[in-house]
Structures are given as structure tokens and as C-alpha cells.
Amino acid sequence: MIEISKDLYQSSAHIPFMHFTLHQYLLLTEEPVLVSTGTMQQAEQVLPEIKKLLNGKELKYILFPHIESDECGGLPVFLKEYPNVITVCSELSARELSGFGYKGEIQSKKHGELLTGNGFLFKFIDYPSEVHLQNGVVFYEETRKIFFSSDLMLRFGDAIGQTIDSSWKEEVGAINIERIPNENQLETLKNSLLEIEPKFIAVGHGFCVNCK
Ligand SMILES: [Fe+2]
Ligand SMILES: [Fe+2]
Fold first, then answer.
1. Secretion signal: which residues (predicted)?
2. What is the pLDDT of residues 142-193, one digit of tens each?
3. For the domain that residue 188 is a member of, what is the CATH number?
């Protein structure tokens, strides 16, 4: 794992034939938070590194934005290692997880709700990323001003450990109808994103962004 921003560790996989990179993040605070699990295979690979970084601490939370293999496929791997871990996700994802037989503790979060812990404050923002444009969530860690963009602000290329510079307004402005194929929902998402002012975008795919 690479410390891509203060307290924030990135774990990645690059898929050469797709020119595509997938990332997950560990926010290493008193109450450690994993953002997205990666696939089952990625989770198994990264677990020893996470254990090393946690240095005997328990993983407290797993946040994931929507049901998809790269976002939450590795949940069973982490639940086995950390049976008390609390999974935090959208209401729809929470209902789906039970259907998949997930037995760990789940907290569901709505738009505007917070998750406060020792060393962080996450705000949840609706993101119509689930099938049929239903709501998943994206996360904003207000203490460090880090936005976890999931499949938004996505770029192609081998982007492991790399950052680029951009402005938050440009990044929000570039979210297009291909990403959210409904004009009203796209507009609503952009408006809620413009209410925050991140300094760093921890992307799910591609290059992380330093916001100028
Ligand atoms: Fe996704
Ligand atoms: Fe993704």
C-alpha cells in the first residue's frame, strides 16, 4: 500500500488490457476505515499489508459506495479477519447485503448523514450508481477534505500511486451524461458536490487528484 495522502493508504490493481486501474483505501486513524474492499482476490492479497499497517488494531469500519465486485466483493475476507467490523453503505446496498447472506454488522446512511469517529468525520452524498440509477453513496472525509469518488472522476491509464492537479469545479463539471444517464439526477449530484470543497480526490479508478 502507498501513502497517497496524509493517513491515506492506497491499494491498487492495474488491468493492462483495459488500461484501467482499481483502487481501495485505508484511512489509518485511531479507528481505521477501509474504503471499498476490492474483489475477493484483491482483498486476500492486500490483507497481510493491512494487518501490518494496523499493527494489532482492529479494522473498525468498511465503507463502500455501491454493490459491485471491486467495491464490496472482498467483504467476506475482511469479515473473517475482523468479525466486529461495521460495514457502512447506502440503504439499498444494506438490504442487498442481507440478501447475499452477509452476516456482519451493517449501518446504512442516507444523503447528508455523518459518520463520526476518533480522527475522522465522513459525510454521505447520494450517488445514483446502483442499477436503474438508484442511490448508492459517495463519501467526504471533512477533517482532511478528502472526497472518495468511486466511479466518478475516472480516468484510464496505469495510475498506481500517482496524482494529477486539477480544480474541484472542473472535476465536478466534467461528470457527464454517460456517467449519470439522467439529466435531473446528474444536475442534483453536481449541485450537492459543489457544496463541498475537497483538497484531494481519492478516486476508485485512475489518477487521484490534488485540488487547487
Ligand atoms: Fe462501480
Ligand atoms: Fe468502481
1. none
2. 999 999 999 999 999 999 999 999 999 999 999 999 999 999 999 999 999 9
3. 3.60.15.10
